[in-house]
Amino acid sequence: EIVLTQSPGTLSLSPGERATLSCRASQSVSSSYLAWYQQKPGQAPRLLIYGASSRATGIPDRFSGSGSGTDFTLTISRLEPEDFAVYYCQQGRTFGQGTKVEIK
Amino acid sequence: EVQLVESGGGLVKPGGSLRLSCAASGFTFSSYSMNWVRQAPGKGLEWVSSISSSSSYIYYADSVKGRFTISRDNAKNSLYLQMNSLRAEDTAVYYCARDFGGAAIGDYWGQGTLVTVSS
Predict the structure, then answer these.
(1) CA-atom Rg of chain B in angstroms
(2) Is residue B23 less than 8 Å (CB to CB) from chain A?
(3) How do the pLDDT tens digits run along chain A, 104 residues long?
(4) Is the peptide bond preceding residue A8 cis, with omega within 30 degrees of 0?
(5) Rg for chain A, CA atoms, rounded
């Protein structure tokens, strides 16, 4: 069973800063099935990235995904106020535990 | 516009049953696999079950296997989750999500329905 470990658990940043979130798999996984979601309090998750690096419909280009094998990264180039949320990675039927991006 | 609307959540005693529904609109429901994903209060996301477009392929998380049954009615554009032998640890918001590419990735999600298992 694949385990996805996200780091850090919490990222404290200011608007305008760059956010780098990590997702590490316990074994090599297919990039085709690696996704990232954003979730705000009281809301459903929102698909940001699929196939490790493809942006979902309507997702701003400040969000980008990269990686392969066991190491994947979600980057938010310049944080907007609405980007402060929890982010999850997913590979197939497994989710990471999430990274909270909070305002510093 | 793609819409998914869950219903059927509520308070149930341990050992009890509940049936969740997800009404789909805005897309050709019969062409997509569907998923149920849950989130316990204050916790992360947990995949629960998936069903293929024609119901030929069905998968469950080990935590619910033998207790939950996923089904769909393509004529009614509806997805279901029958939950039996409920436990306290099944308490969560249950989301239905449209499957993107057959990998349990959800490109559209409902707003969720809360299931509380408590005596």
Answers:
(1) 13
(2) no
(3) 899 999 999 999 999 999 999 999 999 999 999 999 999 999 999 999 999 999 999 999 999 999 999 999 999 999 999 999 999 999 999 999 999 999 99
(4) yes
(5) 13
CA dihedral B16, A43, A104, A22 (to 10 degrees): 80
Residue in chain B lying closest to A44 (CA): B111
Distances (CA, A) of B12 to A89, B16, B18, B90, B91: 31, 6, 8, 11, 10
Q: Which residues of A touch B101 (CB under 8 A)?
A: 32-33, 50
Burial of B63-99, coded b for 16+ CB within 10 Å and e otherwise, reads ebeeebbbebebeebbbbbebeebeeebbbbbbbbbb
Tell me which residue of A25, A33, A37 sits closest to A89, measured CA to CA.
Answer: A37
Using an 8 Å CB-CB cutoff, list chain A residues near B37. Answer: 45
Please tell me which of the candidates A37, A56, A92 has its beta carbon nearest to residue B103: A92
Q: Which residues of chain B have pLDDT under 70?
A: none
Q: What is the DSSP letter of B31?
A: G
Q: Do B109 and A56 touch (CB under 8 A)?
A: no
Interface test with A, best of B27, B45, B49, B100 (most A CBs within 10 A): B45
Check B61 against A97: CB less than 8 A apart.
Answer: no
Residue A44: which of B59, B61, B110 has the nearest Cβ? B110
Task: Name the token pair of B42.
Answer: 């204050």
